Amino acid sequence: MATTLKDIAKKLGISEATVSLALNNNSLVNEKTKKRVHEAAKELKYFPNMIAKGLATNKSNTIGIIVPDINIVFYANILRAVDEIVNRAGYSLLAAMSNDDPKVEEEIIRTFISKRIEGVLAVPTNQPTKFLTSYQKALKEHNIPLVYITSLYTIDGIRYVMGDIREGTYMLVNHLVELGHKDIVFIGGNRTVPTTSLRREGYGRALTEHGIPIDEKNLIECDGIHYDQAVLATEELLQERHDFTAICAMNDEMALGVVNTLQKAKIRVPEDVSVVGYDNTIFSKVSMVGITSMDSDIEGTCRQAVDMLMQVIRGEEPEEPHIMVRPAIVQRQSSGKARR
User: Fold this and answer.
1) Is the CB of residue 160 less than 8 Å from the CB of residue 131?
2) What is the topology classification, in CATH, of domain 165-295?
3) Which of 115, 245, 284, 327 makes an SS bond possible with 293, Cβ 3.0 to 4.6 Å?
4) pTM of the prediction?
5) DSSP 3-state assignment of 179?
6) CATH code, 5-48
7) Residue ranges of domains in the chain
8) Cα separation of 43 and 32, whole Å?
9) How confident is the model over 97-111, as pLDDT tens digits?
10) Which of 6-20, 149-163, 180-194, 209-223 has the lowest mean pLDDT?
11) For residue 164, is pLDDT > 80?
């Protein structure tokens, strides 16, 4: 049978009210009594009923987070970082996966509301969609703040913290141009999704600044942003032509798919074709050829997103509701001077 407040009170010879106040570290109880109560609770294996507590206070002490797909290392790293930061702040984390489906994303939000979540961190889907404003409205009606992390929906009145992927891609492509590359292929997701469109803007800016025309055939769209899609895109590219000297992939997982496909076709990296990725994940390090990538500072991004969310939960309005975290290039063996 589960231990109750009454059991602790009986053991210590004090009232249940005092036990409750002590467990909640209320200033009305002296430190000596608090210590005795906490020790007794531990000895008797007392676990507070968080559901009942939430009903009483109308607070769950829980933050919800949605990611598109935990099979992508980048998103798994976000979950790991956010969980640690949220726990340090004294909150629990409830994680859910949207399967990159906007409708599922909306359903998750409504579930979060029913569970009295105090705030939501959301990584938007990578699918083209007209933003479903109904769930944002529902969150506002229940006074539950929302902060987008690592991406955003391009609508008014949102808060977000994300790596500056436009600037990061600009830096990567500029790096390739400085190595003598002019025919640079970009492989990403759907162009209407911000995580791809912002990168394409950075790609275009780097070429334009160097007087290099933007060739539409070098902008490749994939149905997804996984390894397999990058392999397929690279295979189709090689069937059509071999005149390019560099490939900029949307993330490290896709970059690894590109590298492996090129090597399978007996094309050397970087001697024949240079390759760069993004996010500086494990994929850039385990590749037979270390992949030049862009570190998007996941820890810093997650910390600032959680801090912003906590500010709003406390009733404070962040001074800056839109934060772009500057990335840093990590150069490895996959990018080298153009040979032709």
Assistant:
1) no
2) Rossmann fold (3.40.50)
3) 284
4) 0.78
5) coil
6) 1.10.260.40
7) 5-48, 60-163+297-326, 165-295
8) 17
9) 988 888 888 889 888
10) 149-163
11) yes
